[in-house]
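Hi U.,

Before I forget, here's the chain from the pilot set. I'm dumping it here mostly so it's searchable later in email.
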Amino acid sequence: RYNPAIRGCVNIVTNIIPTTFNERKVSHTIIGGMQYRGSEQREDFCVIVLNRGRKYYRQVFFEQLLAEGFTSVISIESNSDVSDMESLSGKFPQIRFLFPQEQLTIGEMINIGFAETAAPYIMVMWNDTHIPPGSFTPRVLEKVKQEHLFCAAPVLSNIKGEAVPNQIVPSLNGNAFSTEQLPCIKNKTATIYPYDFMGIYSRTKCMQLGGFDYTIQNPYWQNLDLGFRAHLWGESIRMFTSFRIQYEGEPAPENISADASYRQFYLKNLAPELTNGTAAIPFKLFFTYLRNSGLNPLRTWQHFSAAQRWTELNKTAFKTTARALIEHWEPFI
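Structure:
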């Protein structure tokens, strides 16, 4: 899981870095869940279901969720296929099926789900997974609240019950950034991001962090961007060994190549430096960025200066630098 500092970025235009949560409004349609319209019914906890691949026995999936006691569920539909909506919405009237009117990144799907619910805590999971009986207890949610966590990540396993290494540890070798997947063997171990976006999130903290950056197209860098920013801004992501989610197949591989998405991640997370408690991207980094970005000078400056402005807006939110964060990473491995 090695990535050179900047190399490999392609020459495409990146949108301006979003400065507020769910900044880009996406048109969407919602079927079902009428009891939650107008915020008249209080939601304490919500499950957001992301959909991919073939439709894994959706009726059984939702029956299992409801049997576990989850009463507020939002299913983010990944395409316009509504062939099973009549039967599903009729059988599960409490579930909100949300249909975006355009293609979205995974992070955008989660953002739009977070905007749709008022629940303070939200669990994100995929339609090709399930929660084994007894693998989610109210105690996990209580720990998230007590310790003021941004996110609690589960321990993952494949269809055979074999552990999926999903404790993600960041490292810097010189200026080369990389991450490593390790098995989780200790409760409340830190992870730099929740693998495959799955976990229990604090909605308030997610919004304060700005949510997922829709301009980052690669899911790996988009997930890592929010997770890394959370740590830089003083938040925590912990893994709980009592919280387990199992895949119905094999987990989807991550694309960790240093593409255009890495360029955005680098500028927002690795480039800022701290001086007297305020963050800034020093101009001295521009020429290194120009040399390695693969962009022409004008485009390089547009990207670099946009990141400088974003960092200036958030200069007091940074509590540490990338290098300091990684050097002091907890060695729970």
